[in-house]
Amino acid sequence: MRLYLQGFKLWLGFVVGRIPWHRFRIFFYRQVMGMKIAPRTTVHWRLAFFAPQGISIESNSIIGNDCFLDGRSGLTIGSNVNIGGHVQVFTVGHDPQSPSFGTKGGPVVIGDRAYVASRATILPSVTIGEGAVVAAGAVVTKSVEPYDIVAGVPAVPIGKRTRELEYDLDFHMPFQ
C-alpha cells in the first residue's frame, strides 16, 4: 500500500507541476511533497522528481522548466543557483557491474551561484562547486571545482569563471 501511496503522490506532483501558477506549485511542493524551498526561489513548471522530501533549495535560486530532480540520496541546491530548462539531476543509478543490477549513488550538492545550463545531466555523488558553470548538454560524472567551467560528455574543465560575483537572482513570474 505504501508504494501505491508514494506513486500517487509522485503522480500528483507531476499534475501540479503543469499548473501555471507559481505560488500554488511552491506551496504544494513545500506543504504536501515535503521539499525544503527557501523564500525568493522560483520553480518553473513541469518539474518532475523522485523523493521530493530529500530535496533542499536555498533562497533566490531558479529551477528551469521541465527539470528532473532526484532526492533519494539527498539533493542540496545553494543560493542564487540558476538551473536551466530540461536539466536532470540523479542521486541514484544502476550499477552496471552489479550481478543483480543493483543501485548505487550518493548525494548531490550544487554550490551557491552555480549555473547549470539547459539539458545538462548531473550524476550521483557529485558536488558542483560555488560559482561553477556546467555547459549546456554536459554530463557531469565527477565533482566540479568552485568557479570552474565544464563542458562535454563527460564534462571536463574548459575555463574559469570570475570570482567577483555579486548578483542576487530575483526572477519571479506569477503565472508561469
Task: Provide an overview of this structure.
It is a single chain. The chain has helices spanning 2-16, 22-31; strands spanning 36-37, 42-43, 48-50, 55-57, 62-63, 68-70, 75-77, 82-83, 88-89, 92-94, 103-105, 108-110, 115-116, 121-122, 127-128, 133-134, 139-140, 148-151, 156-160. The radius of gyration is 16 Å and the shape is globular. The protein has one domain (2-160): UDP N-Acetylglucosamine Acyltransferase, domain 1, CATH 2.160.10.10. The strands form 4 sheets. The chain has a 7-stranded mixed sheet with strand order 2-5-8-13-16-18-19. With 176 residues, it is α/β, with parallel strands linked by helices. The longest helix has 15 residues, at 2-16.
How much of the sequence lies in strands comes to 25-35%
Helix segment tally: 2
Helix proportion range: 10-25%
What is the CATH superfamily classification?
A: Hexapeptide repeat proteins
How would a crystallographer describe the biggest sheet? 7 strands, mixed
Query: Which architecture does the CATH hierarchy give at level 2?
Result: 3 Solenoid
Rg over CA atoms, rounded to whole Å, is 16 Å
User: Which fold name fills CATH's third level, the topology?
Assistant: UDP N-Acetylglucosamine Acyltransferase, domain 1
Low-confidence runs (pLDDT<50, min 5 residues)?
none
How many domains would you count in the coordinates? 1
Shape: globular
Rounded to the nearest angstrom, the distance between the terminal CA atoms is 34 Å
Strand order of the largest sheet: 2-5-8-13-16-18-19
How many β-strand runs?
19
